[in-house]
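Structure (tokenized):
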């Protein structure tokens, strides 16, 4: 992290730092992780932080919560380049990349309005990743092939 970024975002004692989020995506990341602020712990969101690698980036620091791999992998379609840093007692104890899961349940809606998952019944969406390189997705219920741009929260 550059000196300027470090000054902008204070170090945390315990928790999770999501770094290198594509600029402008931090709020989507919070939505996907269901972090609302009502949990009571300190959450710091920094938007458009200068980054040596990608121009600008967003950073989220969630204090006193260690995000699980299963949670952070949900970010694969939103912030694929993000890195997850788990901090314990000011030390970096784990650094991981986000991996695209084989399927994603319940975060995105199927863009097909006639899909049973949009019918108002209590059916969670289930979207399979059929091509991880080209990011081709498919609804398990209606078999609609979905591109990342079509995903709706
Ligand atoms: Zn569908």
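Design, position by position:
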């Amino acid at each position: 992290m550059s000196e300027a970024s470090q000054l902008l975002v204070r170090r945390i004692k315990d928790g999770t730092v999501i770094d290198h989020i594509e600029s402008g995506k931090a709020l989507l990341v919070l939505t996907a992780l269901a972090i609302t602020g009502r949990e009571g712990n300190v959450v710091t969101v920094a938007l458009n932080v200068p980054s040596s690698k990608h121009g600008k980036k967003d950073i989220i620091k969630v204090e006193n919560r260690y995000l699980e791999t299963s949670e952070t992998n949900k970010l694969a379609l939103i912030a694929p380049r993000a890195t997850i840093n788990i901090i314990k007692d000011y030390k970096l104890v784990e650094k991981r990349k986000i991996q695209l899961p084989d399927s994603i349940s319940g975060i995105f809606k199927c863009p097909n309005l006639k899909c049973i998952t949009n019918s108002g019944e209590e059916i969670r969406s289930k979207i399979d990743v059929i091509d991880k390189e080209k990011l081709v997705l498919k609804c398990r219920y209606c078999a609609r092939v979905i591109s990342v741009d079509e995903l709706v929260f």
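Reviewer-requested clarification: The chain has three helices and nine strands. The CA atoms of residues 123 and 131 lie 24 Å apart.
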